[in-house]
Amino acid sequence: MKPEEELRFLILGAQREGNRLLTDLLSPLGVTPSQAEVISCLKAGGPMSLNAVGKLLVCETGSPSRLVSTLVERALVVRRENPEDRREVELELTQEGHRLAAEIRQVESRLYGWLGQRLTLDEITTAVGLLRVLVAGTAAGNAITRRDGPSSDLPKE
What we know:
By secondary structure, the chain is mainly α. Helix content is 65%, strand content 11%. It contains 7 helices and 3 strands. The chain has helices at 3-26, 33-45, 50-56, 65-73, 95-118, 121-135, 139-148; strands at 48-49, 77-82, 85-93. The protein has a 3-stranded antiparallel β-sheet with strand order 1-3-2. The chain is globular and about 55 Å long.
């Protein structure tokens, strides 16, 4: 196997194992990893447009409207139309959404602990640097860059 091929499969395998673990940890909360990511983005950034949420998501390409609709139906997110522009929708966590966001944060901490048991901080730092180079300029890389700064830097548009 060529090194590039092995790298490809190792990245895929790491993603699948991490996502499988995250799915298992989130299961008791009744949310998927993609739904949890939307909730976490809204918790970190506060009310924002559907478009702005979409620019922060790594789990979803394109518009997250179907994903958000499920969270609205479950009363975790409220959707408000802009009275000046009905095409623009603002999203905000409900009280139940905020409660669930705290539980999601605990689950994420458990996932990060799992990673920390397998890799040292130096190894994680090295891996992050290398993976940033791989995703630079991509939709996922751009979403990660947008989320990397303080919450005041999250898009509100």
